[in-house]
Design goal:
This is Brefeldin A-inhibited guanine nucleotide-exchange protein 1. It contains 5 helices and no strands. The protein has 151 residues and is mainly alpha-helical.
């Protein structure tokens, strides 16, 4: 009893169920981002850093732009982890590199503030904007991690 697959007959999807491509697209992009950030931090790859930075800027800004177009809550939820990943990674890089990334993403990050974001993403965005203030010398570093001084 040979299955349809071994006979070379293409299998269709049963009913309305389709493979979860959303999970595949976000997982593969997350994997690619991790590799790029690892290369970006690797001292033995200094000759590639400029190209890696160019690719990171493009991929991350495209991911942000795409997130802004999403209307489905579940779709946005899946992409939230990607945003958390790359924003967290960017927060760990040097001030000089951070400047390049922050200035590239700034308008997109301002747009993202309009969405109902999960607390984790709001917290990372807060840290990102606080660092923008310090790195671009438009504000003082917060006294403590809360960033709010009581008067």
């Amino acid at each position: 009893n040979k299955s349809k697959r071994t006979l070379g007959i293409p299998l269709g999807f049963k009913g309305k169920s389709k493979p979860n491509l959303l999970k595949q697209e976000t997982s593969s992009l997350a994997c690619g981002l991790r590799i790029l950030f690892r290369m970006y931090m690797d001292e033995s790859r200094t000759s590639a850093w400029e190209e890696v930075q160019r690719r990171l800027l493009n991929v991350c800004s495209e991911a942000l732009s795409y997130f802004l177009t999403l209307t489905s809550e579940s779709h946005r939820e899946a992409w939230t982890n990607l945003l958390l990943l790359f924003l967290t990674k960017v927060l760990k890089i040097s001030d000089e590199r951070f400047k390049a990334h922050a200035s590239f993403y700034y308008p997109l990050l301002c747009e993202i503030m309009q969405f109902d974001l999960i607390p984790e993403l709001r917290a990372v965005l807060r840290r990102f904007f606080l660092r923008i203030g310090v790195v671009f010398q438009i504000s003082q570093p917060p006294e403590q991690e809360s960033g709010i001084s009581k008067q």
